[in-house]
Give the backbone structure.
Amino acid sequence: MKSHKLIVVVLVFAFVLVSSGYGQQTAEQLYQSALYKEEIEGEMDAAIKIYETVIKQYPENRSVVAKTYLHIGLCHEKLGNAEARKSYERVVSDYADQTEPTKLARERLSALSIAGAGTIERTEPAMSRIWVAGKNLIVGSSQNGRYIAIYSNETGDLWIHDLQSGEDRQITHEASGVEYRFAAGSAAISPDGKQIAYSWQNKSYVELRISAIDGSNMRVIHNGQDGRSMFPHIWVTDGLRIIAVSYDNKDQSYRLNIISLADNSIRDIGQPDREYIWWKSISPGGKQIAYTRKGDIFICDIATGQETVFVQNPANDYVSGWTPDGSGIVFVSNRSGTYDLYLLGIDNGLPRGDIQMLRRNFGFNAGFLLTHDGRLFRQEQLSTSGSYIVPVDEQTGRVTGTPSLVDMNYTNTSFLEWSQDGKLLYYMVSRGVSMDSGKELKLLTRSEVTGQTREIVLNPKLSYWYRPILSPDGQKFAVTGNDENKNFGILAIDSKSGDVKLLARIPPVGNEIDPSQNWSPDGKAIFYKLRSPEDKQVSIIRRKDLSTGEEKDIFRGFNANQMKISADGTRFAYFRVDKPNKSYVVAIMDIQSCKEMEIWSVPETDASGSVWIWAVTWTPDGKNILADRSNKQGSELWRLPVAGGPGEKLHFFPEESMGFVMHPDGKRIAFTQNRTSYELWMLENFLPK
């Protein structure tokens, strides 16, 4: 259920409220207070007024004014006002030296591209927003563009949204974080709109299911117990077969498949590949499939399984769909340096004529659908994300001030931690939208003495890694990820040179768990988790001696989520699921005896709906555990005494907040806060007549 972010807007939570007016604030403080009105309180008109004050009082501050015009445009866009375009154009024309605001303004202009000065003629190409899904991820659609399948961010169930009637219909009713059951991020609606095929995580396996469009008459087509997970993408025109992509957990490869609904038989298409197969589209006659693999476009004959190359280029090319008459393929490519929309004719599976650009700077996102009547649907993800530090009372742990942004230069910071002496803050930054090489991931450190920030450049560069943990001696970071040979496990990154090496390989067994790596206090060993190859229901905590290479399993049983080792190296803090009581349990385990002590239990639902826990961490004195309790309303920070007794709620955050860590002096807490909204946009009247 990963998605690719195109439009990233910095959510700055740090601001100074000045009740007597704005004159006492700096340009940055005033800008931040407007952001708070826009992103936290959702008061667009009030935010616009403050933004206009920024421009009026600080016209010489180009960096702030450029961001201000960008956000005025975003506010107008959320209000449905045509003035949005004027603000974006002002950024592009007058503040081209401000790279990030200009980039974002161009992306919004691309999305809003309309012929004329604000009016849309039905015969002219037009891009318009047709639906806001909120936090719910769009995972599929019908070929006629009427029905949209969505994954509920709150519960994990699958829903259908009818774009014509506006009706929302729940398809599944059994999602549970505790039971590890939820929609697995892929769905396809039948040509007649009466059935839906979808992938479903059922404990250790991903099932392929099919049901009526109202959720009734569900049956399992493939149970996943052969080691393959099936993800449906399109129905064949006859309504009797489904095109899916399978993932083989054993050899970590992807493959196209055609599944017969008559007998549930599965036919493999093409060869297995370590790279994912993107964006599948079926021809109007139902005889061919177009899809993207490794940045090139292929055509496959459904009857014979024969595959031919349709577009091969050093750039990245992604299928959007077939033209309604089947005479061409529409695709997105960055061959010009920006992601543009193109058309190429097709005849008997082979390219015909020259490539024609349909729309420059169309943008790139995590889903395209060209309907049978020639409308192009695109999902957009608008996100605000950032990491913050907030002062707290050393004795009570309660928040005493206003959160401040960790790094004004980067969005999407996460996995913050301090070194043991508190002199170094380090974190991960993700940037970019490439689907072949993944997001650009950076490891940054900041001196708490000088304030200087340094990027550690990885050698070799890694496409996938997360959660850096600094060794006790400060010489290296342990991260979870894939090395250059795509071996998954725990990697070490030298804190000076950035050199990367594999510390512990974790063999794939399917449905992998987060290893939650930890250093021993002396830095001579690492602890991490993995699934048992014999029984996927069993998780293992393993200790590896880094000098001898000896590995020892110290615990087998439940999954100790987000485990954190104590400063003295004798205990783990974690949370786990309690299936009989349908709750989450925060607990501590003695490493030598593996004896567990429960310190907090949280039901997975309350009056507001679903509840979840993101992570736990120790306080510096080792006397308490900090844990978050989140629901659709926001996140609560709790302090739980290790010795037992009732916990105490320290603070409520109105946005989804996670990754809480406390500075060694006990006076500050760092955390990450996310806000995401998915939208459905439609481009029409763009194909040549």
Notes: Helices lie at 27-40, 44-57, 62-79, 83-94, 99-112.
